[in-house]
């Protein structure tokens, strides 16, 4: 395998590891900020790095439509194009294609769809998805899959999963092995244990550099998601990284790490930052609320991000009410910094064998809620 993963320690099922790619290393557990169109919204690349993020996520679907994978390749690849020198993982585009219910036609070979940007017609197959990700120069390429909808009956979930497994095999054949680059397979099967087991068996037989768990955080609820992870993760190879796609809230991430997940991505911290929401050790804040307009305190007194180090809740509330762009920039920076703080805390707790104590303290602070205005 071309991508290396070193397991540095464990605390129960939780894992502390390191992924080495062509563009650098990633300490795990890791959270990947989402840079769908070649940018983490409202953030400069160096600002993203300053939060502690080591890897970002780009998206095959959006980048193939605009500006085009061939254009990005001609300009030196996505790292140079967006000025991010570190590792990049690219989503295969399967989720976006699934969401285009009225604009796409799916068959056994791939998907034909009309662009939501300009209405032009495009064809995306497992081979083309892999090719686009190679043109983008993604360190970690994701298999093209059909994202199973929710809710779903077991026969439909089985059909969807088996199509994804056929596409995974085709994608593996199309992937060009290079030092420091890897391909991840995606486990599907919705919430049905037998289907998840079948998917894992198929993917491990094909052989991938890492394994993602897809089709969760789509409305099934945290309890069901954790139950699915409990049955799925023990079946995956211990010497490969495990990636839970599209998750999530801080409590979801902590619970998934406890079960053995190594990698996460989600638009939640950046999207929340653009809609006046801040994640903190004591839960979530809505800085649009009037109760913050005279509050001189930072969002979180324990946070070292620029929003907390230099600005008050009152100022942030003012920026939001005035619809100033700086509000989105500062709140996004804060949220990404907080998420990276969680990952730093988890890594340190696993290393020291104190994960149980760390999780208990995290849960206790979240349950206390925000301190009222003094």
Question: TL;DR?
Answer:
The protein is α/β, with parallel strands linked by helices. The protein has helices at 45-50, 60-65, 69-74, 78-82, 94-99, 126-136, 154-174, 193-206, 222-232, 250-258, 268-273, 306-310, 313-321, 325-352, 355-368; strands at residues 4-11, 14-21, 24-28, 30-32, 56-59, 88-91, 104-106, 111-114, 121-124, 140-142, 182-187, 210-213, 242-244, 263-265, 277-280, 283-286.
Task: Describe the protein's architecture and organization.
This protein is α/β, with parallel strands linked by helices and 374 residues long. It folds into two domains: 4-265, Alpha-Beta Barrel (TIM Barrel), CATH 3.20.20; 273-368, no CATH class. 42% of the residues lie in helices and 19% in strands. The protein contains 15 helices and 16 strands. It has helices at 45-50, 60-65, 69-74, 78-82, 94-99, 126-136, 154-174, 193-206, 222-232, 250-258, 268-273, 306-310, 313-321, 325-352, 355-368, and strands at 4-11, 14-21, 24-28, 30-32, 56-59, 88-91, 104-106, 111-114, 121-124, 140-142, 182-187, 210-213, 242-244, 263-265, 277-280, 283-286. Strands 4-14-13-12-11-10-6-5 form an eight-stranded parallel beta sheet. Strand 12 (210-213), helix 9 and strand 13 form a beta-alpha-beta unit. Helix 7 (154-174) packs parallel to helix 8 and helix 14 runs antiparallel to helix 15 (355-368). The longest helix is centred in the last third of the chain and has 28 residues, at 325-352. It is globular, with a radius of gyration of 20 Å.
């Amino acid at each position: 395998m071309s991508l290396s993963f070193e397991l540095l320690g464990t605390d129960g099922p939780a894992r502390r590891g390191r992924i080495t790619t062509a563009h650098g290393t990633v300490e795990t557990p890791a959270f990947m900020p989402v840079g769908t169109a070649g940018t983490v919204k409202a953030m400069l690349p160096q600002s993203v790095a300053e939060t502690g993020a080591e890897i970002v996520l780009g998206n095959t679907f959006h980048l193939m439509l605009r500006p085009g994978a061939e254009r990005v390749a001609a300009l030196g690849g996505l790292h140079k194009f967006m000025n991010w020198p570190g590792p990049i993982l690219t989503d295969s585009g399967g989720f976006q294609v699934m969401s285009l219910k009225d604009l796409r036609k799916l068959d056994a070979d791939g998907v034909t769809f009309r662009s939501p940007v300009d209405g032009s017609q495009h064809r995306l197959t497992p081979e083309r998805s892999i090719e686009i990700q190679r043109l983008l120069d993604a360190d970690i390429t994701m298999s093209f899959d059909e994202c199973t909808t929710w809710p779903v009956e077991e026969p439909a979930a089985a059909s969807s999963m088996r199509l994804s497994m056929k596409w995974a095999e085709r994608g593996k054949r199309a992937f060009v092995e290079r030092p420091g680059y890897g391909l991840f397979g995606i486990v599907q099967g919705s919430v049905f244990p037998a289907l998840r087991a079948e998917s894992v068996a198929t993917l491990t037989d094909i052989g991938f550099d890492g394994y993602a768990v897809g089709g969760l955080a789509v409305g099934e609820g945290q309890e069901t998601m954790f139950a699915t992870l409990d049955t799925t993760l023990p079946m995956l190879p211990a010497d490969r990284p495990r990636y839970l796609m599209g998750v999530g809230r801080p409590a979801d991430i902590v619970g998934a790490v406890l079960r053995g997940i190594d990698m996460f991505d989600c638009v939640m911290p950046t999207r929340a930052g653009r809609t006046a929401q801040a994640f903190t050790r004591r839960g979530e804040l809505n800085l649009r609320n009037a109760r913050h307009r005279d509050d001189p305190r930072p969002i979180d007194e324990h946070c070292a991000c620029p929003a907390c180090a230099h600005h008050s809740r009152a100022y942030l509330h003012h920026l939001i009410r005035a619809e100033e762009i700086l509000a989105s920039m500062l709140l996004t920076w804060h949220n990404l910094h907080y998420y990276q703080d969680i990952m730093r805390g988890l890594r340190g707790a696993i290393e020291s064998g104190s994960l149980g104590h760390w999780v208990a303290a995290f849960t206790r602070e979240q349950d206390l809620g925000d301190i009222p205005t003094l």
